Amino acid sequence: RNEEIILGEIKRSPVTGTGDEASPVPEEDVEQPIVVNADNIEYSADTKYVIATGNVEIDYKGTKMTCQKMVINTVTKDAEAEGNARMEDDQGVKEGAKIIYNFETKTGNIIDAKFRSNPYFGKAQNINKPGPDGFIIKKGFLTTCSMDHPHWRMAARQANYYPNDKLQTRGDTF
Length: 174
Known about the structure:
Blueprint: E1 3-7, E2 15-16, E3 23-24, E4 34-38, E5 40-44, E6 49-60, E7 63-73, E8 78-89, E9 92-102, E10 107-117, E11 120-129, E12 135-143, E13 154-162, E14 166-173
Antiparallel strand pairs: 1-4, 2-3, 4-6, 5-6, 6-7, 7-8, 8-9, 9-10, 10-11, 11-12, 12-13, 13-14
């Protein structure tokens, strides 16, 4: 990597309580900086935007995103990734032509998407991530077959998937 930038302040882990009752605040509640690695990074202090190009890589609070070009608003933590865009978190791997994502709220959209989330694999016109739990697959298919050309698949107009919990589908075709 040629360049690295850390966006935001680095803060010590806060502690709640006093004396024997003191305990650290959970890591997900601590404000963390976004660390951007890329071949080229430009930052505008006026607009508070970062434009990173070439082998872009971000790892923030358990979400790792890679792509060829990413624009990040350092205030809102909104990001737009293009070019081999890939996002990996505790719910699996999602890839797409474009990923629009908010690192703080864990919400976003993946356009022209593929995903792997045990035990399912699939493709979709759009994957919507309305929050940290689950995602919505629009106009796509799901399968448990990991082959490039699956033995079977279920097409759905919409599928709501909550990893390790449930799968709800509408407008299915086998």
